[in-house]
Every structure is written in C-alpha cells, then in structure tokens.
Design goal:
The protein is α+β, with helices and mostly antiparallel strands. It has helices at residues 29-37, 39-42, 55-65, 116-131, 146-154, 183-190; strands at residues 19-22, 72-79, 85-95, 100-107, 136-142, 158-169, 172-182. Bound molecules: coenzyme A (COA). Residues 41, 44-45, 105-107, 112-118, 141, 145-148, 150-151, 154 line the site of coenzyme A.
Length: 194
C-alpha cells in the first residue's frame, strides 16, 4: 500500500498577522470608489492622467475583480484588530498553461503605512502558490511608488525589468517596473522546500 500524505487544510489561508482576506461586500464599494477617484492614489494604479470616473463605472469593475470564478481572485482586506475594511487585493489574468497570474493591491490612504499592504501582499502570494497552485506571480509598479516597491520586495518579488521613461506624470517621465516571484523562491522563503 502506498504511503499517501493526507493534505491538511490550511486554516490560516486567508488570515495574516495584521489582516484577513474576505469577500467583497456592498458596503466596501463607496470606499473603493473614493480611493480610486482620488488623484493622489490613482497615479499609482494607472498611467492615465488623473481622470475621475463615476461610481456607476467603477462598481462593476470592482465586482468583476472579486468574482472568484476561476478567472480571477479578489478579496477585500480587513484589519484583524478592529475588522475595518482597509483595502482590496487581486490575482488576475491567470494563464492556465503557464500557471501565472498578476497581483494588484490598493490600501486606502487613511490606512496606509501600518503594515496592512505588506501583510496582504504576503497573504495573497501565499494563497496564489499554496491554494491556487500557481508557478509564478507578477506585477507592474511605477518607479515613483517606493512604498509599493518596499512592500513587494519584502514579499519576495524581484525586479525583472523596466520600461524606461514610459510613464508621463506631472511633467516628468518615469520608469514602469516589472517584478516577479516564482513558486520555488517563495517556498525557499517559507523554509518549506520538500
Ligand atoms: C503600496 C501599498 C499597497 C503599501 O501598503 P501599506 O500598508 O501602505 O504599506 P506597509 O505599511 O505595509 O509598508 C510600506 C513599506 O514601505 C516603506 N515605505 C513607505 N514609504 C517609503 C518611501 N517613501 N521610501 C521607501 N520606503 C517607504 C515603509 O517603511 C514600509 O516598509 P517597512 O515595513 O520595512 O518599514 C499602499 O500604500 C497602497 O495601496 N498605495 C496606493 C495604491 C498603490 O500604490 N497600489 C500599488 C500599485 S503597484
């Protein structure tokens, strides 16, 4: 008889040190729309010039990102200490053959710099590798976003390249940085390589 290892469920798959990941709720949407429309935040998410968009356009976008239907996974981020809704994370565009998906995150400005983004990034990366069986997770970040770069580097992402002077913002040109993290690199970080 084969010695089969029984897979244990991971009770902390959606719970980190500071945050929990949960389903998108209707009451999260006004916050997400406000953050997305705030020019001080939207400059980190899109190359577009600051362009306010109506909630009627943004709400379907956030719902789509949170479908969890096998084509994308999106969760609201809540603080463990008080259950406050603080942000949103997604893994989107999975390529089934190559087992690769793209990571994106927003933490509301009033909740930033408290470790939530770093913890949510680590958690979603673990979810992608341990629960979804991904081989690779990648992302794009603008060079003028040192806070995101710090959070991503802490989660193990490595810079793989940059499109030089590709983003025009506030009268200047900036690089667009590509980062990636492979499953075996993540496993080595966890100290759980078989
Ligand atoms: C980027 C983002 C997810 C980070 O989450 P956060 O909760 O604010 O950040 P954290 O508190 O987890 O950690 C930020 C890290 O950046 C560091 N940091 C902050 N400002 C920095 C700066 N100007 N230069 C270098 N490092 C900086 C902090 O020191 C911290 O690192 P540490 O824990 O080692 O001290 C969040 O700020 C956010 O959503 N911003 C707006 C949207 C966005 O940028 N999304 C990502 C698009 S690619």
């Amino acid at each position: 008889m084969n010695d089969q290892t029984v897979a244990e469920p991971n009770p902390s798959a959606l719970t980190g040190r500071k945050v929990r990941l949960r389903e998108l709720r209707d009451e999260d949407l006004p916050y997400l729309c406000t953050w997305w429309s705030n020019p001080s935040q939207s400059v980190f998410q899109t190359t577009d010039a600051p362009t306010p968009r109506p909630s009627s356009e943004l709400i379907p976008m956030f719902r789509d990102w949170s479908k969890n239907d096998g084509t994308r996974w999106g969760f609201s981020v809540e603080a463990k200490e008080d259950g406050a809704f603080v942000g949103h994370v997604t893994l989107f565009g999975p390529n089934v053959k190559d087992r690769c998906a793209t990571f994106a995150i927003v933490i509301g400005p009033e909740h930033q710099d408290r470790g939530y983004g770093s913890d949510a990034t680590r958690l979603m990366v673990s979810y992608g590798f341990a629960e979804l069986g991904l081989h690779r997770i990648e992302l794009q970040v603008f060079a003028y976003n040192p806070r995101a770069l710090a959070a991503y580097r802490k989660a193990g992402f490595i810079e793989e390249g940059r499109r030089r002077s590709s983003v025009y913002r506030n009268g200047a040109w900036h690089d667009d940085i590509y980062m990636g993290l492979l499953r075996d690199e993540w496993e080595a970080q966890q100290g759980n390589v078989a």
